[in-house]
């Protein structure tokens, strides 16, 4: 299992664990909410019975104090409505909006709309309980959940939201720190590789010159190919030395840059693979040629490895005049990529080869996005039929809109 698959499994495991914790928290809170609902219902029923006793023993002064004490200790918001729907009395409402005595100047007001809103809320939450009123008519007692119960009902979701926000912030912070650390490792390894390659390349150049002079092999084709490979090593060293620093980009004809590299590359791969370059031969873009060659090399190597026997690799160059962009499509006739892996192929460590490191496409994405301000993605792929990678670069030519006069 490659590191990317391991990381993805750990993410799924942590996500599942977080869901279990969240579900348990919600269920546990829901248990207390229902318990509190039952207690408030019992408290309301006690209030109803006390109110009924008040009606029956209205003139009994011995029980009035006890009944008032019980009713006063009921903290539920309650409204008693007459048979015609008029509000007779209330309890537990907002005292700043229920001032019937307009003569008092204590900062309270009388808000009739507030009573209507509260009564509608009570009707939505619980059915009314009928009682026989003082005038012998049927009265109705409404109540709604206490503020404490309402807050408790929403508390687990607020808690999960806060925890989720904290985890997201922590994840972004740790990911940024890890990415910065990875960048330092990339840069350190790249520059150390360039430093280590410098000495043997210089030695090889000296040995080639010695062979040419000793054996009079100035025009020997084998020596020429050795020189080409040494130059290639110099290019690779230059690539590694540019990692971590802002490379210089210059105006180049995209077709020419790609053609020159393909001519070098196809001599060093299977002759059963046909290379074709199509599209606009004049389009230009800002490129760092050594790094851009590295991008094309990685794409062509992956394409060649995906072709088991015979096949073809086509590079199509398209100019998007509207957006002033250059599209470069690299299409092969290999085994293809599953749609679920379109993003995964650019992850460090992801590979389908037993001996691969899974760094080629990850590095390719870095070069295109960080150094060329472009994009690269899997445009299309079908298993056993082939894959198309698309590179998007900014054109170095600015087109002025033509005016009709």
Topology, please?
Blueprint: H1 3-56, H2 61-72, E1 78-81, E2 87-91, H3 112-125, E3 129-132, E4 138-143, H4 147-214, H5 221-242, E5 250-253, H6 254-266, E6 273-279, E7 284-287, H7 289-306, E8 311-320, E9 325-332, H8 360-371, E10 375-382, E11 386-394
Parallel strand pairs: 6-8
Antiparallel strand pairs: 1-2, 1-4, 3-4, 5-7, 8-9, 9-11, 10-11
The largest sheet has its strands arranged as: 6-8-9-11-10
- First-residue to last-residue Cα separation: 66 Å
> What is the element string, with H for helices and E for strands?
HHEEHEEHHEHEEHEEHEE
CATH superfamily of the largest domain: Histidine kinase-like ATPase, C-terminal domain
Strand tally, please? Answer: 11
How many helix segments? 8
Top-tier CATH class of the largest domain: Alpha Beta
What's the overall geometry? rod-shaped
Taking all residues together, what is the mean pLDDT?
82
**What's the Cα radius of gyration?**
39 Å
What's the number of domains? 3
Largest beta-sheet details? 5 strands, mixed
State which percent range the strand residues make up.
15-25%
Quaternary state of the chains: single chain
Q: Based on helices, strands and strand pairing, what is the structural class? A: alpha+beta
Poorly predicted regions are none
């Amino acid at each position: 299992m490659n590191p990317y698959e391991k990381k993805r499994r750990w993410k799924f495991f942590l996500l599942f664990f977080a869901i279990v914790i969240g579900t348990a928290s919600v269920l546990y809170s829901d248990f207390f909410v229902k318990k509190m609902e039952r207690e408030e219902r019992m408290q309301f029923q006690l209030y109803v019975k006390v109110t009924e006793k008040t009606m029956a023993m209205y003139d009994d002064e011995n029980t009035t104090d006890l009944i008032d004490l019980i009713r006063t200790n009921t903290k539920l918001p309650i409204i008693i409505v007459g048979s015609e729907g008029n509000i007779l009395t209330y309890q537990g409402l907002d005292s700043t909006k229920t001032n019937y005595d307009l003569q008092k100047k204590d900062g309270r007001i009388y808000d009739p709309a507030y009573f209507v809103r509260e009564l509608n809320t009570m009707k939505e939450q619980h059915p009314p309980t009928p009682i026989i009123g003082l005038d012998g008519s049927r009265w109705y007692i409404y109540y709604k959940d206490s503020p404490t119960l309402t807050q408790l009902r929403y508390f687990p979701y607020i808690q999960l939201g806060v925890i989720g926000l904290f985890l997201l912030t922590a994840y972004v912070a740790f990911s940024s720190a890890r990415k910065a650390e990875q960048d330092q490792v990339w840069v350190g390894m790249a520059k150390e590789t360039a430093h280590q390659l410098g000495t043997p390349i210089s030695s090889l150049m000296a040995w080639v010159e010695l062979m040419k002079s000793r054996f009079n092999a100035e025009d020997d084709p084998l020596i020429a190919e050795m020189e080409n490979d040494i130059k290639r090593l110099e290019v690779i060293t230059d690539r590694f030395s540019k990692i971590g620093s802002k490379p210089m980009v210059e105006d180049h004809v995209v077709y020419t840059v790609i053609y020159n590299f393909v001519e070098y590359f196809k001599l060093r791969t299977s002759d059963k693979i046909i290379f074709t370059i199509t599209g606009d031969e004049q389009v230009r873009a800002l490129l760092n040629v050594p790094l851009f060659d590295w991008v094309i090399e990685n794409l062509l190597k992956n394409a060649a490895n995906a072709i088991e026997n015979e096949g073809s690799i086509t590079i199509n160059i398209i100019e998007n005049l509207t957006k002033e962009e250059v599209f470069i499509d690299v299409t092969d006739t290999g085994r293809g990529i599953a749609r679920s892996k379109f993003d995964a192929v650019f992850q460090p460590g992801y590979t389908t080869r037993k001996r691969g490191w899974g760094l080629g496409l990850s590095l390719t994405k870095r070069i295109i996005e960080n150094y060329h301000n472009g994009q690269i993605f899997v445009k299309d792929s079908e298993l056993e039929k082939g894959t198309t990678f698309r590179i998007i670069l900014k054109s170095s030519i600015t087109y002025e809109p033509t005016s009709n006069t």
